[in-house]
Amino acid sequence: MLKRTPFYDFHVAMGAKLVDFAGWEMPIVYRGIIEEHEQTRRSGSIFDVSHMGRFQFSGKDATAFLNHVLTRNVAEQKIGQSRYSLVCNASGGVMDDVIVSRDVKHWFMVCNAGNRDKLVKYFGDVRRQSGLDLDMADQTESTAMVAIQGPKVIDRVANILPVDVRALKRYQFEAGSLMLTKFSVFRSGYTGEDGVEIVIPAKVAGMAMKMLAGQMEKPDATIKPAGLGARDTLRLEAGMALYGHELTEQIDPLSAGLAWAVDLNKEFAGVGPLRKVAQEGPRRKLVGVELEGRRIARQGTPVIKDGRPVGEVTSGTFSPTAQRSIAMAFIDAEHAAEGTELSVDLKGTIDAARVVKLPFYKRAS
Amino acid sequence: MSVPSNYRYLETHEWHDLQGDTVTIGITQQAADELTDITFVGLPKVGAKVEAGQRFGEIESVKASSDLYSGVSGSVVAVNADLANNPGLVNKDPYKGAWMMKVKVTNPAELNKLLTAEQYLKKTGH
């Protein structure tokens, strides 16, 4: 039996096509993936991301615990700040990528839906084995979460939300109350656009959706619903990693271009192998690739140089913004320089491709 | 959702319209909707031979790729050049503007082995 988010009735009413995503019945598309993608780049979209795991950590040793399981030094993180971080296994492979936020008395973490059970077990094991004193609460199903993304959304939601959204910097958050309901507002997202992510109690989700997005059926609405299909093409244009594609337990964060999210000067799970990778340099690197034709190089597509395999595509799509076929790929370090001419083997059809700089899309700021 | 009643179909969603000894082939609205926004249609060259039940091309959307199958045997006498620059036409107008290829058939009776509109709708659950 698939789980449903508090917005399930909303998805059905808006005509969404629903699919099984990590055990959740989620909207993949409402009107059209490209239409929803363009609406986000041009104006604004609201995404139900309630399936993502949400944990709260509190207690005397919560900071020490997070510093052990996360690649970044959370001890120096300020109250009101959110940060992207990795959870690594003992070999330095990525167990998950998460956003961790520091509140006055607790920490809040958002993880991938597909990794939630794994992390609950892992965090529980670490806590028991370390003897650290902390409480962990899984709030995934008692709360709901939406991402509102696009160039026009800050102005649209600024007068509605109980926090000063315009004053929030990127990767800051603030909680406020509206009609006795707590709204946690984060200036972050996964689309390459400005916007917010909002966590609210599950029971007020329906009311909040109406309030935040307003009249979404109108053709010229500022904010319209967008599904997981557009979320994927948007994040790919923005060069952002997706767990299960660019990140897995067999991939280390340094090879994936995430050295900025790894603090090798502190001790944490997996740091030994990562220091070795840093010293020797990654054997393979994650790069952006543009294809000549309109064919899409999907996950697993071999990348070829001078007739020999030199890498593999992790994600690919047809970029609605650039109107061309784009991909991310792990490539042997010696062939990963920008401008390198390569080819991809699309089930026997060889198409020309070229290493390009990530991201594929950057918003005008 | 209905489909043109006088066409013949494959379970893999290709429609076939026989006029004289030439069959025009495309895909159904149901298939286009399922694929979502189509970004690429790969078609054979004029003069190529196609065989009943065999792959003749491929179609891609932002979401997925899929092979295209012919329900008839013969040689390709025309392909729709509009689809190279405007593959999204398949989503908008799958039965007219987004026809894919015309095949001069060797044996028109092959059409009788294909699904009728009613059988297609029943088989694909639409």
Description of the structure:
The complex is a heterodimer of chains A (365) and B (126). Chain A is an alpha+beta fold and 365 residues long. Chain A has three domains: 8-51 and 141-237, Probable tRNA modification gtpase trme, domain 1 (Gyrase A, domain 2, 2-Layer Sandwich), CATH 3.30.1360; 53-138, Aminomethyltransferase beta-barrel domains (Alpha-Beta Plaits, 2-Layer Sandwich), CATH 3.30.70; 284-356, Elongation Factor Tu (Ef-tu), domain 3 (Beta Barrel), CATH 2.40.30. Chain A is built from eight helices and 19 strands. Chain A has helices at 8-13, 33-42, 62-69, 116-130, 153-158, 205-213, 228-237, 271-280, and strands spanning 17-21, 24-29, 45-48, 53-58, 82-88, 94-102, 107-111, 135-138, 143-149, 173-178, 181-186, 195-201, 224-225, 284-291, 302-305, 308-319, 324-332, 341-346, 349-356. Chain A has a six-stranded mixed β-sheet. Chain A has a six-stranded antiparallel beta barrel with strand order 14-17-16-15-18-19. In chain A, strands 5-6-7-4-8 form a five-stranded antiparallel β-sheet, with helices on one face. The radius of gyration of chain A is 21 Å and the shape is globular. Chain B is an alpha+beta fold. Chain B has a single domain (22-116), classed as OB fold (Dihydrolipoamide Acetyltransferase, E2P) (Beta Barrel). In chain B, 18% of the residues lie in helices and 35% in strands. Chain B has four helices and nine strands, in the order E-E-E-H-E-E-E-E-E-H-H-E-H. Chain B has a six-stranded antiparallel β-sheet. Chain B has a three-stranded antiparallel β-sheet with strand order 4-6-7. In chain B, a hairpin with a 4-residue loop joins strand 1 (8-9) and strand 2 (14-19). Chain B is globular. The model of chain B has no long low-confidence stretch (mean pLDDT 95). Chains A and B meet through helix 2 of A and strand 4 of B.
